[in-house]
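Supplementary Methods. Inverse-folding protocol.

Structures were first reduced to a discrete structure-token string of length 275. This string, shown here, constituted the complete conditioning input.
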């Protein structure tokens, strides 16, 4: 039996802390982003089960929603749909409390990130996912903190050290980041230091910008930060040391060789001076 579920919860900090505990307990973390004062949590999966099989994902999400209802969280709203292929919609729910979360939920529904409104399917599954890129991710172990947007002020996502690292001044290390990913077709990842990396740890990234193309996508294709220490330092597991984003690949280009360029000459490197 084909089974599809889609859950989006938009909530404030209080409800988020509550839900994070439930998700951690079930080891079933959603995608997490932050939009202003609200957190956006989203689960989506399609699986095939035997007719009488247990649905562990559904049980986990049901407990999350029940926890919200039991506590009457005033800073949360959710949209929830479940679908069994070949049958009608089994369960459609909208729960609204705070006006701010409700407005944000409407915004996400209008963009198709939540695929239904008021119990009615408003777009296809393809349209619902058009605004979001799915990235398969493998974690080194359960102790690695799951990736998420930290404060909603940037679309860069922080990466963490996967083990405790002690470095002496002048030492080079490949610091494991505890993740491997299968990027969407046509995308690559750029990894750079955080603005506070040198201040906090005294290290610099030796390649300045790390490029991960989508062919680096196997179970042993772990991500690393090549680091050079300018002072003695200790980096603890789960310390945030760099960040990444995914970008579309460069379009194919053709080089047209000419004897001389016809653009305006600026005068070469350093032509604008130092003042």
């Amino acid at each position: 039996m084909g089974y599809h579920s889609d859950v989006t919860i938009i909530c404030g900090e209080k409800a988020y802390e509550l839900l994070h505990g439930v998700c951690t307990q079930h080891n079933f973390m959603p995608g997490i982003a932050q939009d202003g004062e609200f957190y956006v949590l989203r689960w989506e999966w399609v699986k095939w089960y035997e007719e009488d099989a247990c649905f562990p994902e559904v049980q986990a999400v049901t407990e999350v929603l029940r926890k919200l209802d039991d506590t009457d969280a005033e800073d949360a709203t959710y949209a929830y749909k479940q679908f069994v292929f070949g049958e009608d919609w089994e369960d459609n729910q909208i729960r609204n409390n705070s006006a701010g979360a409700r407005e944000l939920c409407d915004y996400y529904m209008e963009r198709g990130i939540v695929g239904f409104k008021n119990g009615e399917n408003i777009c296809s599954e393809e349209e619902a996912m058009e605004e979001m890129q799915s990235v398969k991710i493998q974690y080194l172990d359960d102790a690695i903190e799951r990736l998420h947007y930290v404060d909603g002020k940037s679309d860069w996502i922080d990466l963490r050290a996967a083990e405790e690292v002690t470095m002496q001044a002048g030492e080079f290390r490949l610091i494991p980041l505890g993740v491997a990913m299968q990027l969407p077709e046509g995308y690559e990842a750029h990894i750079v230091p955080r603005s506070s990396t040198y201040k906090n740890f005294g290290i610099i990234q030796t390649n300045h910008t790390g490029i991960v193309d989508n062919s680096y996508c196997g179970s042993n294709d772990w991500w690393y930060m090549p680091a050079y220490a300018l002072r003695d330092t200790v980096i603890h597991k789960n310390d945030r040391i760099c960040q990444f984003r995914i970008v579309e690949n460069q379009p194919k280009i053709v080089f047209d060789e000419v004897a001389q360029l016809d653009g305006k000459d600026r005068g070469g490197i350093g032509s604008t001076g130092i003042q």
